[in-house]
Design a protein that fits this description.
The protein is α/β, with parallel strands linked by helices. Helices cover 36% and strands 14% of the residues.
């Protein structure tokens, strides 16, 4: 199956967000030991992987956890602010991870299934981190940004990784504005992917014309012009409309 272009709204950065998300606006913690927020990055890019961040907290900690200072919807934060939040957010989480699906997997599976597999890869990493503690896990609740639950659809498919505790998923539109775990997942995922695209841009002179250090693989005018002039690279999603 081929991927289809599209994505979330463009960034409107600001260093002083007017509103912070709450810890959990969905009551997902009812009967759960762990709450995991999920958010994606790279859905609409022309090159590079799609990634899904997962940020987990113990449900028992809800009563005394505070929202990290400055946390907001990642699209409302500048790159400098996201970078500054990255390590504090990872420390705030009981566990965090970023799962990826490559451009080749997107071309093979389509974007929705690729997102689901990326999310499950992140969830599997998070659960294995949590299992190192002495606390038993019986139930995991997931909060996924947006209206569509692509995580549950990907569970138990041939491509899915082994997830020790399948999560019960709740979707939340604009979850990165309302739920701290989702907002944390979004920032962690975006910083991780932006760093990767900048590293790729510097890793091979064949990638230089595409300016991934600036556009992060998204379809800027200069990026599309470079594809038209040089052709797609091995990092491009060739099933998409690239020019």
């Amino acid at each position: 199956m081929g991927g289809e272009p599209g994505g979330k709204s463009s960034e409107q950065p600001g260093d002083q967000p007017s509103e912070q998300p709450g810890i959990d606006d969905t009551n997902a913690h009812a009967a759960a030991d762990v709450i995991v927020g999920f958010d994606e990055v790279g859905r609409g890019a022309l090159a590079g992987p799609v990634m899904v961040g997962a940020a987990a907290i113990w449900a028992r900690d809800l009563g005394h956890l505070s929202v990290p200072a400055g946390l907001a919807d990642s699209k409302m934060l500048t790159e400098r602010r996201r970078e500054a939040l990255f390590e504090p957010l990872r420390a705030w989480c009981a566990a965090s991870a970023v799962g990826a699906a490559s451009n080749a997997e997107i071309d093979e599976w389509g974007i929705a299934h690729a997102l689901g597999i990326a999310a499950l890869r992140a969830l599997a990493q998070v659960e294995r981190q949590l299992m190192r503690s002495a606390t038993a896990i019986h139930a995991v609740a997931g909060i996924l940004d947006g209206p569509n639950d692509y995580i549950t659809k990907a569970m138990d498919t041939f491509d899915a990784p082994d997830v020790p505790f399948p999560a019960t998923i709740t979707t939340l539109v604009k979850g990165d504005r309302h739920c701290a775990t989702v907002a944390a997942a979004a920032v962690i995922a975006k910083v991780t992917r932006d760093r990767l695209m900048s590293e790729l841009a510097a890793s091979d002179p064949r990638y230089a014309p595409y300016e991934w250090d600036r556009n992060k693989g998204y379809g800027s005018r200069a990026h599309r012009a470079a594809i038209a002039a040089c052709g797609p690279s091995d990092m491009h999603r060739i099933s998409w409309h690239l020019v």
